[in-house]
Design goal:
Layout: E1 6-8, E2 18-20, H1 23-31, E3 39-43, E4 49-57, E5 62-70, E6 78-85, H2 89-101, E7 106-110, H3 121-142, E8 149-150, H4 156-162, E9 170-174, E10 181-182, H5 183-188, E11 199-205, H6 213-221, E12 225-228, H7 239-250
Parallel strand pairs: 1-3, 6-7, 6-11, 7-8, 9-11, 9-12, 10-12
Antiparallel strand pairs: 2-5, 3-4, 4-5
Amino acid sequence: MSQLPRFHCPAALLLGDELDLPAGTARHVQVRRMQPGDEITLFNGEGGECVAVITHMGRSDVGVRVTQRIDTERELAVRIHLWSGITANERMDWLLEKATELGASTLLPITAERSVLKLKGERSDKKLAHWQAIAVAASEQCGRNRVLQVAPPLTLTQAIAAASNQVQCTRWILSLAEGTQSLQNAISALPKPALGQAQDIVLLSGPEGGLSPSEEAEALAAGFLPVSLGLRVLRAETAPVAVLSAVGLLI
């Protein structure tokens, strides 16, 4: 089943339904030069996936019939919410792709003091749509049935204020300061979640040049635990990927 071409289809997918694919999904199917009778995998990001057979290929529309429902999940045992200092264009795109592949649930771009890229207004809206499209494409490729959600950029102060009323969760900040605990120890110290509840981890990582001393102090005051990845200094886009990889393997 995994060998079938996979497409994100933001629509209700019910067994036996015949539907026209949304315009964006239809274009992707047409690019693959598929024909009536071909089977594809569809997922709408709400969990599970479906097998559908193409019933019609028009110039701008594609019709399908849902023939099988597969209730499978490929998510991590914890929900990781990545707060990432905005990096330069290509590096941020790469981080979005890899974070999706490695199972992050959400990504909040942080407009940090040392962020090279500053986003406002229409430019911010276009960049947000671009990043979300990268997450969708990465989910199609890697087999995830839920799509990482990219939030509108905030400053660290705004992000902490917005999260103040959220359910208590573990908060980590990647730090080069002395006395930080290792990632392995941080994972070992995670509290056990209540039965039937998923655990949430907020991971804060800086842009090129890292978070400023004042930003790091603000995060620590908000309950973020400083975590180290060792003696080497990783790039801004590499460090969170390393954490996501380790969490996926160890939890």
